[in-house]
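Q: What does the assembled structure look like for these inputs?
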Amino acid sequence: MAFPDASQMLETFDNPAPERDYEILHTAHEFTSLCPVTGQPDFATLRFRYVADKTCVELKSLKLYLQAFRNEGVFYEALINRLLGDLVGVLQPRSMEIVGEFSVRGGMSSIITARYPDSN
Amino acid sequence: MAFPDASQMLETFDNPAPERDYEILHTAHEFTSLCPVTGQPDFATLRFRYVADKTCVELKSLKLYLQAFRNEGVFYEALINRLLGDLVGVLQPRSMEIVGEFSVRGGMSSIITARYPDSN
Amino acid sequence: MAFPDASQMLETFDNPAPERDYEILHTAHEFTSLCPVTGQPDFATLRFRYVADKTCVELKSLKLYLQAFRNEGVFYEALINRLLGDLVGVLQPRSMEIVGEFSVRGGMSSIITARYPDSN
Amino acid sequence: MAFPDASQMLETFDNPAPERDYEILHTAHEFTSLCPVTGQPDFATLRFRYVADKTCVELKSLKLYLQAFRNEGVFYEALINRLLGDLVGVLQPRSMEIVGEFSVRGGMSSIITARYPDSN
Amino acid sequence: MAFPDASQMLETFDNPAPERDYEILHTAHEFTSLCPVTGQPDFATLRFRYVADKTCVELKSLKLYLQAFRNEGVFYEALINRLLGDLVGVLQPRSMEIVGEFSVRGGMSSIITARYPDSN
Amino acid sequence: MAFPDASQMLETFDNPAPERDYEILHTAHEFTSLCPVTGQPDFATLRFRYVADKTCVELKSLKLYLQAFRNEGVFYEALINRLLGDLVGVLQPRSMEIVGEFSVRGGMSSIITARYPDSN
Amino acid sequence: MAFPDASQMLETFDNPAPERDYEILHTAHEFTSLCPVTGQPDFATLRFRYVADKTCVELKSLKLYLQAFRNEGVFYEALINRLLGDLVGVLQPRSMEIVGEFSVRGGMSSIITARYPDSN
Amino acid sequence: MAFPDASQMLETFDNPAPERDYEILHTAHEFTSLCPVTGQPDFATLRFRYVADKTCVELKSLKLYLQAFRNEGVFYEALINRLLGDLVGVLQPRSMEIVGEFSVRGGMSSIITARYPDSN
Amino acid sequence: MAFPDASQMLETFDNPAPERDYEILHTAHEFTSLCPVTGQPDFATLRFRYVADKTCVELKSLKLYLQAFRNEGVFYEALINRLLGDLVGVLQPRSMEIVGEFSVRGGMSSIITARYPDSN
Amino acid sequence: MAFPDASQMLETFDNPAPERDYEILHTAHEFTSLCPVTGQPDFATLRFRYVADKTCVELKSLKLYLQAFRNEGVFYEALINRLLGDLVGVLQPRSMEIVGEFSVRGGMSSIITARYPDSN
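A:
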């Protein structure tokens, strides 16, 4: 497994309103990766909600970064925590929440939600 | 009535991000058991929401554990509390909520919700 | 008007998990009574949400108790408060909320919500 | 513009459970008035949510009172505040919220919400 | 890029109930502007929620002001912050929230939310 | 079982456009009767679609006629055929279809459809 | 009852493609008139589907013509046949269908459909 | 595999309107059987649409007959054809259609439809 | 008004299966043009359904062609017939249907449907 | 581009009811391939509706065959015709229809439908 390199792939632009704590939510409706056990494809909707500090993520680079998981095997729980680590590392946001809604497998669906800073 | 043995059936894996309080929600759309009075089948959607500590529940073993109730008779209220006891025992989560949404019987539907630790 | 006698009609069973404050919600989708002024039928969905203490209400007896209002005339506001009084009297729950959603009459629909203990 | 006289039109009945703070919500799905500028008809769904003190509003009189606006010209913001003043004056409720959801005009829809006592 | 001049285009009228903190929500379902990079059209639903102080925004002037962005290139994040600045400048509201829900581009949709005063 | 007497209860008015074969559809959303075996209430939505000849059915009399089944026991299949016979007898329509959509009993719902003249 | 004069109110424009049998459907979502018996307001969605011959109906004049029924009393069946007569008279279309979907009264809703030429 | 014996389990009653070709549709929302290969549970909604000749199927016996498949292994295609054979054998209907809508397995759902007499 | 030149803008590719009459449906969810009378923006969903003969329309060129109407004034009826003429001219399809669903203006929405060859 | 070899990958089983023309519909909700021009991923729901003759397609082999397109570049129109050719070749069905519903790209979605035998 060779995860995409977020620091290489994710591009940013200057936050146009750093004086304000406003919320940005990007929803990727077509995420797909592979199950690391069976090799079968997984499908998910991913939601990225954050309050930017100095930089915002450029939308097209986020799309390409997510597409780079297409043929990688990764567990649900590990994926969401990996994405959170990657995006927090690149963007240094004031706060961020990532939600992954995974489609039905064997009659069961899953939703994983991780937040930065850890506020549970 | 011989309930499935959770400690035997449920498998776990190491929490990939124990440093963070993130939320896992698995929804089983196809649960069925029997009414202990009439022997008629009951149908429910079950939701398992938890914050893992050291271990996460392996999804396929959760499915098989739930299927083991297929021919057991159990009341709604007892089932949800039993499931909560079983999963808390095996996973030792930081917190957990289980919701059972039971389909219509005699023009009435039921939803039972139990939480650990008890926060009402 | 002769309202059903709740203490006679409602049956209970021992709460299987009294050590925990878990929530029970029964929804009756097919309630009907009469308008006390016009004698015309009224239709409603009723929701009973409670935290049991020593006893839970037996579902079939709740259905029969509600059916006993079929040919009784009662105002919306009085009905919901009467139901709350009856169920609190029989179950002695830790808390209870009853919601009645009444269908459209003259282009207007109504929802009445009462809680025990009174927490507004 | 001659607004309907609420003190004449609205009828009340004794609150059947004044010892409790329960909530009443009446939704009028078919409100219509006129735009005071263009004379064109406006359409709205109106929601009246309140906790009664000594009296409740009689539903049919509320319907007739609302119908009396059919050929009156009134701005959205003025209407909702007028309705709140009228109903608070007649009912003297413990609290009340009125919501008006106005249908699309020029690609824009509007929702106005006023509360008594003023709690924003 | 020549943004519309809000102080010229937005008209106001006196708040009919300044003694009360009531909420006004206008939703523009048909906003369109251009992507500043590709020149391709963007489409959004915009929501303006505010508590007026001395003045309310006149609805038709708000529509025309929004239409003036039709052939302007602007990024999502910059647009919502610009709109908030413009409307707060003209209306001096007690509080305001603007939400932009942008339609799918490359399998991703976006929602931007900014508030005055800054309460995050 | 004493079914309502349709010839007494149903009122008619002159078809305002007998020169044309236009279609009338009345939908009764709140029909209820009793199960002749168990005495339990049944609930249904009934649809009456017809092309009038000389007379149309008066809507309020249709409502009262249907309410007269409230405490009568009748099987689904017999009910719909009885209604068709009654309405055809009173209205002598050019054609008529009656559909009964009965709510869930024991996990099963039913729809019965009968037509005049018999065109299957 | 003084129905609006269609020949005065309805304006037309030349069919831009008379060489083709294409279909036009206008849906008026906010029709309201009065019940001729009780004087209570009725509400409906009206659909006008037609194949134009020499002329098309101008949309704003259709709206104003329909608004002219606002304070007129008219039965459902008579209204739809009247509208069909009026529009066929003015437009002389190749074919036309008018559908009126009337909102719930006493638990019953109605849909009336008339066509020109009469093809049942 | 020991399929339920339809001739033993299905009960019938006399068609109350054999002079008419009316349609009966029963929908079983909670069917479950087993996959004959994996032993995993399958779930389906089954629809039985028929025109009765001399007899109708009794609804409760149909429910019990379907429940008898709960622990039997059977392929989708074989099940629907088996059900059609069984019901045609017992009811001798004028016509019948059975539809099975099977829930998602491996990202794929299936619908099987068989008719008597064979009219494709 | 200067309509886009379809023969310049629309690109085609060879039909990959000309031996078969299969159906292609492209739906443009974000069409916008101007009202030729008021200059106000119009919004529509456009559906292009056709059976290709020798060539298929290239999707991106169709998008750009439709965007070229953004600042043109055109009536609904004229637009749909113009689009049909343009696409039939370029593609020479075996058959084609174009549907335009225009959003609400003054409480009325419109749908225009034209077909080639003319089969009404 | 190296398309999967259907004759190798698709497995079949004997039609359990060849004496009857019944319909089988399999819906693959999670199809993904690549755009042959841009290399960007495409997503679709695919529907396979057929009347079997001697053999039926085995569901798991159909899933694996479809997954084999995951990293292949193919146009919408070519894909659906290719799938139809492959499945007709392997199954020799009495009839078959394949529908591909492709998700939004640049504000446009597409549906392609092909049938065997060609019946347009």
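The mean pLDDT of chain D is 95.
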